[in-house]
Amino acid sequence: MAYFSKVLHICMKDLKVEVRSKERIYSMMVFSLLVMVIFNFAFDPGAEYIREVAPGILWVALIFSATLGLNKTFAAEIDQDCLQGLMLSPMDRTGIYFGKVISNILFSLIISLLTLPFFAVFFNIPLLDVLPQLVLVISLTIIGFISVGTLFSAISVSVKGGDMMLPLLLFPIEVPVIIAAVKATGMILDGAPMMDYSMWLKVLTLFDVIFVMIAFVTFEYLIEE
Amino acid sequence: MRKMITNLIGLAAASLIIVALYMAFLYAPTEVTMGHVQRIFYFHVAFAWTSFIAFFVTFAASIAYLVTRKKFWDTVAASSVELGIAFSCIILTTGPIWARPVWGAYWTWDPRLVTTLILLFIYTAYHILRGAITEETKRARYSAVIGIIGFLDVPIVYFSVNWWSRTIHPDVIKPEGAALAPQMLQSLYVALCAVTLFYLYVLLRRIRLEELRDEVSELRKKVLKES
Amino acid sequence: MENSLKYMFMGYSVLWLIIFTYVFFIGKRQGDLKKEIDELRRIAEEK
């Protein structure tokens, strides 16, 4: 219980910083919109096939903006040597990880929910009926993406040219998550029953469980100096 | 002593490769539908198998490093990755060359192709990461974590790509018995042994290289201190 | 079928090209390092 409240403290700290500066949410949101607008030019938005490529566009926008946010996870801690302070605090190191994971998941979830209405309008796709299913898929995907992403951002922040390293390390690992997310979203938008895409939900859940556990075990090795 | 063993393994690998080449070209019969191009198969599969071993060795060595903190394991992991990358490049070039006359296209988004490609991406990133970190223990720790995560990701990548696209890749060795002529199977086994030995030989050479590199930096420090 | 032979030839050429390039670079790096070690040893002794 004490562990949980410490995790919550780390998370609240990040949220507080964000509420004050609004730097991360702001740039993530603009970026996510920008990606969709650019795809709008790449594909003819009025065309028939837009429904087939729409899930891909949505996920490229969400994943890229999430990566942008991940790059900032530990950046602020390094800037003023705050990581030292965090590590000196009387708590399990994994608590830092989970605090950061939760705050990152919240950021990405907020961005996703704000992106959805624009997505619906830009590509003329009715979302309201399938919103709960869509939010479920988005949540599972974000958990999988952020759990590994936060781990890797601890690596990339202390490497020179690290913000370039992060997507390079992260994207290939996340291939199963991205496939599952795009497939499930496509089926949901087509109005398919849950039976059809339950397999992809299982893939997402499996990935989340496995990699949260691995991250839990390996995080301590990343910040020990 | 170790040098002698390395050389012996190298010699064994070289001779076995010659035997395997003989078997692939002359001993094994020409495949009826694919023709001569099918002779790529023996080495293609052998390298595919060995690259998987190489990445597994990296995985195991990464765990061993995090547990024991011995520099040797980091060296093994780094060396094995390089071989795995080289071998993956071989699979990803010989595969499409074989596929062109058989399937009519160099590239298909077949699960095994895609998985190998993703594997190549994962371990290339690993390799780039190593190059970007100068501090030794930090480099070892970080790459060990990537080495572990990357390998555990492989089955998930494979299954999700498999569900994403149904396969047309030939399943040569099926559980209910091989669909190959006995001479072909023998050639395959010899090629497997040959390439595995070759992997072992280059791995030992590569580890030696890393040790020489450490020796150089040590000597440099010494010289600088004295001057 | 002669087409098939051409592709077989291509496949094996690329295969050995990659192998020999890699092994060549390992050998070269090893040679360079050995030279450097000798050089450093000589400098160390001269002092």
Q: Major beta sheet of chain A, specifics?
A: none
Principal-axes geometry of chain A comes out as globular
State the domain count of chain A.
1
Q: Decide which structural class fits the backbone of chain B.
A: mainly alpha
- Give the number of helices of chain A: 10
CA gyration radius of chain B, whole angstroms: 20 Å
| Low-confidence regions of chain B | none
- Would you count the extended β strands of chain A for me? 0
Could you tell me how far the N terminus lies from the C terminus of chain B, measured between alpha carbons in angstroms? 35 Å
Question: What is the count of structural domains of chain B?
Answer: 1
DSSP strand content of chain A: under 5%
What is the helix tally of chain B? 6
CATH architecture of chain B: Up-down Bundle
Question: What is the CATH topology assignment of chain B?
Answer: Four Helix Bundle (Hemerythrin (Met), subunit A)
The major sheet of chain B is characterized as:
2 strands, antiparallel
In words, what does this structure look like?
The complex is a heterotrimer of chains A (225), B (227) and C (47). Chain A is built from 10 helices and no strands. Chain A is an all-alpha fold. The relative contact order of chain A is 0.13. The model of chain A has no long low-confidence stretch (mean pLDDT 89). With 227 residues, chain B is mostly helical. Chain B has a single domain, classed as Four Helix Bundle (Hemerythrin (Met), subunit A). In chain B, 81% of the residues lie in helices and 2% in strands. Chain B has a two-stranded antiparallel ribbon. In chain B, helix 2 crosses helix 6 and helix 4 runs antiparallel to helix 5. The longest helix of chain B has 45 residues. Chain B is globular, with a radius of gyration of 20 Å. The mean pLDDT of chain B is 87. The mean pLDDT of chain C is 86. By secondary structure, chain C is mostly helical. Chain C has 1 helix and no strands. Chain C is rod-shaped, with a radius of gyration of 20 Å. The N and C termini of chain C lie far apart (70 Å). Chain C has one domain. Classes of the chains: A mainly alpha (225), B mainly alpha (227), C mainly alpha (47). Chains B and C meet through helix 2, helix 3 and helix 6 of B and helix 1 of C.
